[in-house]
């Protein structure tokens, strides 16, 4: 859809303003660590690191390998790559080795056989990484905020408890942006995380540490959360799988910051992993009793599904256009589906998608059923003390004295200016409701669609500050409550991961997970960044 003259002027002005800010940022921001320049991750050499969690669990149950051996292999890998990635910000290696020894002892003592163990403890002895925003007993829960540096979790969040009960062994917690509200994982408490495929590129956010350590083979499965693409963007930038669940399936209780307003409707906690076969069993565990709402045991015949492709959002002046290589890889997926499965992939367009950013912003600010608005980010940034003063922090940042990143400061300034912005939320809500009706009508219970995960491959560090609304390619599906799986599709011309989102209507998570398995076989899935 062609832009109007007014929209073209808006595009020009937006790019001009962002360009000026980018120049100022480069002038005033601290220099990057030159020691990382030109370095790359070492290749994976231990074969235990190249096995899915499902297969590792089977090998451990059958005593083909001990849990202690597997956990030690991952400890060695984390110690090898984390100095380059800065993904794991606090480990629990001693506790993990003790828990692995207990798992091995339990297997030795089990008299009911392998099937009993698999049913009761499907992840027994398998290491896992956890996003730091989710409570893991004894681990930090600072979410990159300097004023929360001394806060430790006293309990496990429900989703972490479910995974531990299934036998998984947490290895540590991973980095996020401040308050998880940006799509680059950088803060002044733990520092910046680096992309395994190119250390000068971002890992995404807010589950960026998870994406990086998984892609770097320092973990096999992990847990992320997603309110605007915080699972899917890191999974895309780091070339792994990530699943945003249908709304209301996996509990976000025990995560900081807690949801307020109507944000719980948009938040999703979900699995991240290198191998597609781990998505479904992880989701079964993480959903707890809500797993029965999904048809996860239903066999899916891909040839009987209806496939759709949406090449882009139609052209929003607030969002970057989709790159040629990402448009091309999505076309290749369409061609492969049609040639191999004999299906017809229909191209569809939704004019409402042009307003994805505005829809997300409007919905994130809605009050709850009691009329209570979301807690301001300035308050959350200051906890447990007084609220952050964003304009004062901006001046401090300019002389290198702020405890906050420019992303966090910019977010609170944007929030502070919202009362002075002309309200268009009623139009945005109408667009959301229209898109929701059209999506439900199109997809039903047997339709899946392809859509870019992001307009560009992983950008250079800090560049997200000047493309703040590119996350609308993922965020729109949080607002719609739909299940979406990010699938890796190999590496592009710069050696950076390519990918695509596979979505379905609500509660049809099993459809997107089955397509993920198919695309992994067709396009090769995760690639070892050390070998690339």
Automatic annotation (TrEMBL):
Keyword rRNA-binding: no
Pfam families: Amidase
UniProt keyword list: Hydrolase, Membrane, Transmembrane, Transmembrane helix
Keyword Transmembrane helix assigned: yes
Transmembrane stretches, start-end: 12-30
SUPFAM superfamilies recorded: Amidase signature (AS) enzymes
GO cellular component, one term: endomembrane system
Annotated InterPro entries: Amidase_CS (IPR020556), Amidase_dom (IPR023631), AS_sf (IPR036928), FAAH2 (IPR052739)
Domain Amidase: 69-513
Protein known as: Fatty-acid amide hydrolase 2-A
Protein source organism: Collichthys lucidus
């Amino acid at each position: 859809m062609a832009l109007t003259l007014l929209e073209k002027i808006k595009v020009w002005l937006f790019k001009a303003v962002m360009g000026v800010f980018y120049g100022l940022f480069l002038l005033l921001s601290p220099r990057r660590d030159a020691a990382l320049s030109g370095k790359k991750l070492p290749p994976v050499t231990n074969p235990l690191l190249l096995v899915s969690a499902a297969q590792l669990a089977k090998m451990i149950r059958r005593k083909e390998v001990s849990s202690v051996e597997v956990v030690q292999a991952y400890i060695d890998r984390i110690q090898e790559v984390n100095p380059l990635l800065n993904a794991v910000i606090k480990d629990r290696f001693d506790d993990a080795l003790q828990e692995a020894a207990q798992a091995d002892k339990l297997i030795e003592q089990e008299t009911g056989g392998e099937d009993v163990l698999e049913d009761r403890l499907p992840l027994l002895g398998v290491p896992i990484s956890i996003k730091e925003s989710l409570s893991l007993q004894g681990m930090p829960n600072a979410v990159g905020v300097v004023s929360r540096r001394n806060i430790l979790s006293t309990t496990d969040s429900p989703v972490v408890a479910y995974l531990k009960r299934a036998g998984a062994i947490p290895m540590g917690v991973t980095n996020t942006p401040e308050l998880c509200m940006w799509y680059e994982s950088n803060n002044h408490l733990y520092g910046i995380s680096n992309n395994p495929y190119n250390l000068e590129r971002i890992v995404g956010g807010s589950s960026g540490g998870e994406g990086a350590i998984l892609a770097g083979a320092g973990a096999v499965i992990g847990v992320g959360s997603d309110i605007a693409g915080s699972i899917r963007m890191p999974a895309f930038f780091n070339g792994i799988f990530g699943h945003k669940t249908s709304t209301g399936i996996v509990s976000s209780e025990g995560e900081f910051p807690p949801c307020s307003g109507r944000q719980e409707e948009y938040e999703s906690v979900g699995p991240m992993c290198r191998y597609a076969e781990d998505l479904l069993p992880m989701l079964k565990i993480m959903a707890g009793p809500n797993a029965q709402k999904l048809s996860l045991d239903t066999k899916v015949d891909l040839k009987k599904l209806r496939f759709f492709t949406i090449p882009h959002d139609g052209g929003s002046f607030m969002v970057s256009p989709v790159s040629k290589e990402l448009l091309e890889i999505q076309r290749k997926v369409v061609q492969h589906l049609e040639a191999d499965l004999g299906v017809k992939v229909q191209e569809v367009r939704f004019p409402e998608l042009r307003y994805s950013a505005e829809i997300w912003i409007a919905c994130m600010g809605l009050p709850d059923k009691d009329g209570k608005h979301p807690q301001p980010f300035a308050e959350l940034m200051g906890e447990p003390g007084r609220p952050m003063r964003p304009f004062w922090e901006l001046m401090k940042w300019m002389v290198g004295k702020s405890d906050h990143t420019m992303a966090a400061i910019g977010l609170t300034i944007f929030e502070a200016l919202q009362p002075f912005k002309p309200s268009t939320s009623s139009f945005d809500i109408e667009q959301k409701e229209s898109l929701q009706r059209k999506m439900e009508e199109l997809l039903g219970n047997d339709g899946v669609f392809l859509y870019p995960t992001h307009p560009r491959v992983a950008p250079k560090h800090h560049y997200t500050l000047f493309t703040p609304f590119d996350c609308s390619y993922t965020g729109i599906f949080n607002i719609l409550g739909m299940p979406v799986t990010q699938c890796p599709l190999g590496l592009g011309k710069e050696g950076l991961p390519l990918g695509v989102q596979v979505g379905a209507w609500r509660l049809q998570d099993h459809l997107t997970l089955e397509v993920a398995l198919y695309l992994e076989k067709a396009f090769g899935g995760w690639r070892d960044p050390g070998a690339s």
